[in-house]
Amino acid sequence: MALVIDLKPGEKILIGDAVITNDKQRTRLHIAGESAILREKDVMQEEETDTPCKKVYFLIQCMYLARNPREYHKKYFELVKDIQHASPSSAFFFMQINEQIICGGYYKAMKLARELIEHEKELLNHAAAQ
After folding, report:
1. SS3 of 37, please?
2. Low-confidence ranges of the chain (pLDDT < 50)
3. pTM score above 0.85
């Protein structure tokens, strides 16, 4: 079954290593195949990685888009170790994310990493309020 994506005017989507930009009208795409697909709203640029958990998301995104995702594993797992040392409450998130990464479920891992970023934001807000 094909993935159906509705694109707003001017919205971008990544399919594999190609960036597709919609024209001036709403468009519906039916996409079949195994290529990595990311909507513009789910893409994180490296310049946006201003927290450790955003760096985690970015590395998972790189894994998802890469031809050889394992080239990012070492850097990812080193960062995870550092984050868990500083924030033990993140272990639950990483348990789920790591399971997806090991199984090759990089897109699901990205979705879980979004939850991790929200957890990090809550921790930072709590620390700032102290």
Report:
1. strand
2. none
3. yes
